[in-house]
Amino acid sequence: MNFRVSHLASILVIMLLLGACSTTQLQQASQASPTETIVNQSEDTATEVRSSQNFNQLISQIAQAQEIPQASIELGFADVKTIPSIRKLVLPPSGSFKKNWVAYRKRFIEPVRLKAGKAFWLQNQAFLSKTEQESGVPAEVIVSIIGIETIYGRQTGNFRAKDVLFTLAFSYPETPNKASREQLFKDQLQELILMCWAEGGGTLPAKNSTEGLNITRFNTCLNQNSSYAGAIGLPQFMPSSIRSFAVDGDGNGHIDLRQSPKDAIASVANFMRKHGWQPGMPIYFPVQEGAMSEARALADGEPQLKYSIQELIAKGILSKEQGDLQSGGVEPQSRALIVDLPYPDKDGNDQVRYVVGLNNFLSIVQYNRSYFYAQSVAEFAEALGYKNQSAVPTTVSKPKSEVKPGEVSKPKKLASKKKQK
User: Fold this and answer.
1) Is the model's pLDDT at 32 over the cut of 60?
2) What span, in angstroms and rounded, lies between the C-alpha atoms of 320 and 275?
3) Of the candidates 188, 202, 294, 312, which lies 20 to 30 Å from 55 by C-alpha distance?
4) Average pLDDT over residues 331-345
């Protein structure tokens, strides 16, 4: 199939006419005058044509750079479409919107997810124990991330990945960061194409040959479900993260983050390890009562480890009598940041909870760039039995495979503090 703009435009016009029969569009039409409806259809068609032109340029560049037959990519995207609802979902909140840590936490750390988390842990107990031993990432943290992301595969999204990335790459809504966001999704669209080419058995560079390529598998990969932002599978990896950090946990020679819990578990652990997770170290410390003003002065919202533990003790934000500090698990020169978690109280007044985020907190932020998210992962893990403290005591714990979800295990003995880092 020749993916020429004129031919695609004709296809898109037909698709738009057929799509005009949908319930949503009929409702919109019933609320608008005939003139308004025609104008909207014209604008939609123009947007689709512009998108197809820009997309045609992108796949031409990919085909040349990777030596992939352009016709194969064109065939895989012959039915790609813009999804207007996605453009609404990525819009920033209104100016009157207030961040609410309490509501956010309640949404994710709740009985249904916790019950599902314990069941997921029991079903994958031996592999989680093995993964923790090899990666240093606690099983509770891995289970928490997958639970918060998708409730262990229950909510992985119902949009086709190629439609999502096509929409956001070429018709991102009008926002101040439109250009940078479109470039981000263009990069992810390219990553999806390369990932699916490899998934289909093709080689990179392909030398303009489809030898060894299973075109059905290639197309199935492009059409797989994703979130409205293009994240895929139980752990909600973007295509670039799949290519960089996903691993074959079950050893079947194939990475499947949608159907294989072992692949998802191993991939989350690998992501965290590659993003600086420190085995045996805590995630955060609570701020001392009475140190709100000191914490507020240092909370600048920047995800950087700016302050030493010693500095925070001197300012009264931390106390040297706290368990980890007293036992020497966290060194005085260890770096940290002040995390602000705002919320309105019952009277609508602005309140903020502060915690001290350590290196492992920042590793979670790399997974999802949100303080709310990282703190939720930490507290979800604690609800599953994770001890948010250094593994300093010399008592030997029983193997994790013998520890039931929700049961607190004693810290393992580490050879030296150097190994903890």
Assistant:
1) no
2) 28
3) 202
4) 93
SS3 199: helix
H or E segment and range at residue 392: none
3-state helix, strand, coil in the chain (%, to 5): 50, 5, 40
Give the span between the Cα atoms of 274 and 278, in whole angstroms. 10
**Residues in the chain, overall count:** 421
Q: Report CA-CA distances (Å) from 331 to 144, 313, 386, 410.
A: 27, 12, 21, 21
Query: Is residue 66 left, alpha or beta, with left meaning phi > 0 and alpha meaning psi from -120 to 50?
Result: alpha
Per the CB < 8 A criterion, the answer to whether 132 and 400 are in contact is yes
d(CA 362, CA 390): 16
Residues 6 or more apart whose Cβ sits within 8 Å of residue 71? 1, 2, 3
The answer to whether residues 383 and 118 touch, using CB atoms and an 8 Å cutoff, is no
Q: Which residues lie below 8 Å from residue 221, measured CB to CB, with a gap of 6+?
A: 195, 196, 199, 200
Query: What residue type is assigned to position 224 of the chain?
Result: Q
Half-sphere exposure of 247 (CA within 13 A, CB side): 15
Kindly state the percentage of the chain with pLDDT values over 70: 80
205-238: pLDDT as tens digits: 777 767 667 889 999 999 999 999 999 999 999 9
Nearest to 22 by CA among 7, 6, 44, 5: 44
